[in-house]
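It would be a great kindness if you could assist me with a short task in structural biology. Thank you for your consideration; the sequence and its tokens are set out here.
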Amino acid sequence: MIVSKIFWGDTVCYSIHPEQIITSTYLDEGGRGIEDTILTIDTLNRIADDCSNSFCTILNFDKIISFQSNLITVLKEIKETSKNLILINISGEIVDGQHLNTYKNANNILIDGVYKLLYMNDNNSVIDYDFYNEEIFRLDFKEKLKKYIDSSNKMAHTSSSVYLNSYVDVKEFISLDYQFVIYSIYKLALQLREKWLIGAHHSNPILVCQNSNSAFIASLLSGLLGLDILILDKIGPINKLYKRLGSTIIENRNYIVVSDFVCLGTEVKIVKNLIEFSGGKYLGNVSLIRVQTFDEFDIAYKDALSVFEITKANNRDLNYYISTNLEMLRNE
């Protein structure tokens, strides 16, 4: 299974670190989750088997700090089965140690000991390595998400007093584009670790989920970060009374609420209140997709992380809109 493959024009980009995490955590088992930074031959072989000579192959080595010693032969195989081969974000130590800098291409870019761009041939084409770092992922996420947005019916929001002119079928997104969703959750795990310093304290936070979609996301985050999970079933649109909620929330423990899609945040606020009422500490919320309904200078989303945001910059393109029955005020 390849999770990070993204096509763009005549290029195909693979991100090596998440592929290695999949190998060590879910295929070989016994891995270190997101902390694994050593590239193994099994991971590179999976990518080699997936490559096609119809595309220029870009391999992103961000967060990989060392190789197994025999990987040069697999890279040569990828080079032979690809239209072109370009490496980005690869350590100069790896390049020198594996003797990868065979072609002294004038377009190679070395900054602070890291090759931002390393051509494995004498091709003169120049690519924007910054684009293949993050922008390509955001654009691909948006294009994939469009397939799961239904704008044919206006409906009342189940837990907030607004109308949804569009419905995002996250369950379908997870089911049909599950490989890309796994890659997205990997990126969410990186954000979560950076913001809340997972692993730096004796008492790691507990992930809280409240439906099947968020349980899937939480289970992957748990595997990547080594965190425990608490399931509060059917919080939000379907109400359920907990007679002994205090027995599930541990006093003074930190909790992070996991969501699939956050529109107005009502369900998150419900869970936050339950956690704090029971003596727990709410750190924040992480989600696959979040709707940003405020300008950032009006309200800071300091306790919220998401892989993708629907904002005023992209909601028209996504055909996503929230409304009320109030008349718009016009300046006359």
